[in-house]
Amino acid sequence: MSVSTDHASAPEQRHIRSFCIIAHIDHGKSTLADRLMEQTGLLGERDRTAQYLDRMELERERGITIKAQTVRMTYEHEGETYQLNLIDTPGHVDFGYEVSRSLAACEGALLVVDAAQGVEAQTLANVYMALDAELEIIPVINKIDLPSADVDRVKAQIEDTVGLDASGAILCSAKTGQGIAELLEAIVMLVPPPRADPDATLRALLIDSWWDAYRGVISTVRVVGGSMRAGTSVRFLATDKTFDVLEVGVFAPTATALPDLSAGEVGYVICNVKEVADTKVGDTMAQSDASDVEPLPGFKHVQPMVFAGVFPTDNADYADLRDALGKLSLNDASVTWEPETSEALGFGFRLGFLGLLHMEIIQERLEREYGLDLITTAPSVKYRVHIDAETVIIVDNPAKLPESGDFDFIEEPMIVARIQTPEEYLGPIMKLCQERRGTQKDLAYLTGTRVLVTYELPLAEVVFGFFDRLKSVSRGYASMDYEGAAYQRADLVRLDLLVNGEKVDALSLITHRDNSYYRGRDLCTKMKEEIPRQQFEVAIQAAIGTRVIARTTVKALRKNVTAKCYGGDISRKRKLLEKQKKGKQRLKAVGNVEIPQGAFHAILKLD
Question: Degrees (nearest 5) of the Cα angle 262, 263, 267?
């Protein structure tokens, strides 16, 4: 049967294929998406840009995918036209939540593996997510044009490590376009059509949302039952609010309005939503007059692992920061935020992130997209503080940790880290993990030269420079994936930083007692480099409770007040020096030390 290629005609269920691309970082997902769009005629010569779907300025600068993007393609196969819904996903562990949301909108997944690098840590993590979602997985071996490509070795790795049959793996090169036609054939033949009922009551899963200054909230949806068109009155089940649909459409590759979206299709919907809180990612949209609609399963609620305070440099920008966070959290549901007050920095917010890269990206997006000037405090994790046998409090801000005599013990969050590395770097990596209070759980050889080592590590130790050290000791060849584990009891203390005797609450941190002296000493040394010299001497101290464990001093700027004294009695010079000394003491009593933004980031560089 032949089906019209016109976007306006809704295809039959059996002609729809929804799939995503999953892989480790830099294995060629976005470039492969470019070749698929070119092969299906969606991108012409004039539109062609590298990594077309990485639309965010930050994505292009860093060369990574941060946000999952959708695009619809049409493909002719044996005289019939198929609708291919592609979702390009991020590869970094910090954006795993984006991947999980994409998988909910698909029936199939292309597992892309680098022909030279082979199976890496995040490859495994993404495969397990796809298997949990019961997707059809098609192995794709990319970069076969590289001189170092070893297809047979990678096939064996996929079978041994991942447990998938790689005998029919598609061999391709996203750079040259080799094998793309075979890949499109495999998608049509192997990915099942959606299990959706066009005659059922309208139900649609909200996959993603973002704020548009002119049109309000725009949402990406997967229609599971029924159909949706302009004028349809829809109800969001989580918030129980009703809106009229203004426009539906798809990205092909730019936003293209359609008469309707029917069951099994993926597209965007604009409902005249003006309040950010009215749309929640993972919510179900239904017909407003339908009763007893069963909500769709949605997504697993994500738990932030790293927390940091974000404050505007000018307190007058507090309201702008609050609005920006509301709009940004609509686009990235994995960010959590709540108001916070600091004695040193004023009013701000405590943000929860999935990891350090996630934190860095969110800060940059707030500054670029919303024009804010921010100070971000050092990251922390969530501790369980046992006050007594019955009372347990959760502390995500070191400044709120009670004094050491006021609680029984503290538990810290642990992670299970899987590190893949060439054999020659195994020794330095194991040494690094042991320095960070890690416990080895497993060690397995994936091939004759590649090792997978599993460690249980405190999350707080991974937050402070662990990734940089890992890349350094392995010369960039090691890859790491991690997941949360249970809490574990530890001997932890709060390390405070005093500047001129005043505690800077935003620079407090929680550390293990055995490391506290070294961390305090290094922090004082770093602060001495960051805090500019004043007209008076500035004392920088690290303290645990009332006990000072380290100190450095930023020397005062000096003016030679005796320069005009030529000869004469020494008492005249002494009088001038005493006068200067008293003036500096008076300045020290009333003077404020302005702490620059770099000082808050210096904690990250402590080794």
Answer: 60
Q: Is the distance from CB of 51 to CB of 86 less than 8 angstroms?
A: no
Polymer length in residues for the chain: 607
Cα(87)–Cα(73) distance, integer angstroms: 11
At 517, list the tokens.
């002296």
Q: How many helices and strands (H and E) does the chain possess?
A: 14, 31
Model confidence over 464-482: pLDDT tens digits? 778 778 878 887 778 777 7
Q: Which residue from 465, 559, 446 is spatially nearest to 509, judged by alpha carbons?
A: 465
306-383 sits in which CATH class? alpha beta
**Residue 204 near residue 222 (C-beta atoms within 8 A):** yes
422 forms beta bridges with 450
**Cβ-Cβ contacts under 8 Å for 530 (sequence gap 6 or more):** 595, 596, 598, 599, 602
Pairing of strands 233-236, 80-88: unpaired
As averages over each run of 10 residues, the pLDDT of the chain (607 residues) reads: 38 81 77 82 60 51 59 83 80 62 81 84 76 86 86 86 83 85 89 82 82 80 86 84 87 82 86 74 80 73 77 85 82 77 80 80 84 82 85 84 82 87 88 89 82 89 78 79 82 85 80 85 82 76 86 77 66 73 57 61 58
Per CATH, the homologous superfamily of domain 203-287 is Translation factors (2.40.30.10)
CA distances from 434 to 137, 363, 429, 471 (A): 37, 31, 9, 16
11 phi/psi in degrees, rounded to 5? -75, 160
CATH architecture of 13-190: 3-Layer(aba) Sandwich (3.40)
Comparing CA positions, the residue from 354, 584, 586 lying closest to residue 482 is 354
Burial code of 332-363, b = ≥16 C-beta within 10 A, e = fewer?
Answer: bbbbbbeebebebbebbbbbbbbbbbbbbbbb
Cβ-based neighbours of 294, under 8 Å, separated by 6 or more = 203
Do 306-383 and 493-605 have matching folds? yes
Residue 67's SS3 state is: coil
> Rounded to two decimals, what is the model's pTM?
0.69
Pairing of strands 492-499, 502-503: antiparallel
- If one looks up domain 408-490 in CATH, what number appears? 3.30.70.240
**From the CB of residue 163, how many other CB atoms can be counted at a distance below 10 Å?**
9
Question: Any idea where the domains of the chain sit in the sequence?
Answer: 13-190, 203-287, 306-383, 408-490, 493-605
Which amino acid, one-letter code, is at 25?
A: I
